[in-house]
């Protein structure tokens, strides 16, 4: 194998594919990046769950394949001067030259690198990268980390004529984002569940630009394509929560508040709460005012946040982290909180326009003195 | 105790004094900050080695003292809105109010807080903060962490009519910085050794401004004063290395190079070296060229850096980290390297002007094949 390419482009490609490389594995090849110099130069990282492949513009003089340890390979290329990098390998020994620098390092047999699954085309959709990125990041936090219900360790992608809906749920809260898409192919409606770990990488691969990203659903896998980069993940199998039935929509109390002001108030009261000293937030929805308080062995804290609307004095308890996660994710300066009783969920929605997000947080029981 | 003050000023004072607070101590008061409301509001942190005291402008309505846990106190004040904070304590319970936020937390008995040592005035000097900060940061890295020679776990401050010289040494290398000072009081010449841990805090307290900092040497302690903040540390006792005799000054080889280019070359070759796979740098000083190479189980690396001057082909081994530390600290774009043989130290100096820095790195033995 012999090729040369620009240092900056190679560095970007290593950084992208490294995201799917196992940091520590019993199979040494899985700690590496597969380099394939053919008609183009392809770099692949694959941890058996998620695979990322990207193409680097390169001048290929001799075809070949090799696996290089991702960490060392990445560090060497990062520290090389901004110049053309030349690679030449014989057996598993690779010579890397750039400017006045030269390295000889040992690679691994590419035969030991597992093959990326192929995604048999079923259905697909196209939407701007920036939109996909935002939708993922604003729902990913509610994905469950409880492996006893594997289906909820991923997010549901639901596609219909209205667009794409992404839903995450973990038993204590629910996050939903809805947006229109540019194009849809295949079935009238389709849905699939993507593991949270893969979505976390898709989010990083997408940029804040309007260039398109495509999502292709295969029989057992799903593929995301963003520019020259492709990510493949297995789909999660099982029955996802029938979320529409789970969300109460005839709530009797509607109040509106400033997202950042709500967050600041909750954040301050939360100072008294720690992993060791847990306590729910006691929220009282008064007329145009939310009173938040809590009490632990450290002391007590009280805060107020102005709202518009009358909560009728409803008292309800919340896990501070769950409420903050939802408010942090909500892509709006103002939000509407819908409530009914002290034992029914709180639903967080936009105050106006299309209902493009919905967060639901279940209440926790308040004990006297908390 | 009852007082009110500006949130931002209080936050800055907590952040400064927290540096001298023990993160974990068997005496709970040592994990706290002492608040003393008298004619002014004083905050003190003291971990029995280093003490930091600072003054906060405050409106004091009732005098008193209290100790508050530094971590919680700091987090509460940091998250309060930008407004006037009101404190009111009764026994050890303190009520903190700011805007619509209110906290009640428990403090500790101030009687349990150890008294800061008083520094009996002997000698003192004054120099700009920015200069003191730079001198400390450019020598601190060479302080020894070997407790078997406690005197070398600090830096030597030597004051004479020429100014201030700070020297650190750890048995493998030496760092020296010299600068003029604004004012000197007391003895004609004097010297003392300040613990590295205290200097690390002094460096952070000093800003990049020309406002003066004063250093006062007491019989057993040393005091740094920077604006409204004062740091007290015990002095290290013992015999510091007679460093002037240790530095070879009649070196036969003089070469000059670009500091950043030298650093980049060494940094790249060092990629092959890790904590587990140690190997010295093999440096060959040729005519106008430094060749650097090394070899470990990972592979081998080679780099070149242009120099001006002839090294006559001298081959010498160095610990990569020690050479990089010195070059990173050197406050100059170009440096002069002085060498004599493969077993004598390398001295790093300015290429021109006053000799305001000197770094010395001892060589390491090269084995065949390294």
From TrEMBL, chains A, B:
It is found in: Cytoplasm. Residues 1-117 form the DNA polymerase III beta sliding clamp N-terminal domain. The keyword Lyase does not apply. Residues 244-365 form the DNA polymerase III beta sliding clamp C-terminal domain. GO terms for biological process: DNA strand elongation involved in DNA replication. Keywords: Cytoplasm, DNA replication, DNA-binding, DNA-directed DNA polymerase, Nucleotidyltransferase, Transferase. It comes from the Bacteria. The keyword Translocase does not apply. GO terms for molecular function: 3'-5' exonuclease activity; DNA binding; DNA-directed DNA polymerase activity. Pfam families: DNA_pol3_beta (PF00712), DNA_pol3_beta_2 (PF02767), DNA_pol3_beta_3 (PF02768). GO terms for cellular component: cytoplasm; DNA polymerase III complex. Forms a ring-shaped head-to-tail homodimer around DNA. This is Beta sliding clamp. It comes from Flavonifractor plautii 1_3_50AFAA. The lineage of its organism: Bacteria, Bacillati, Bacillota, Clostridia, Eubacteriales.
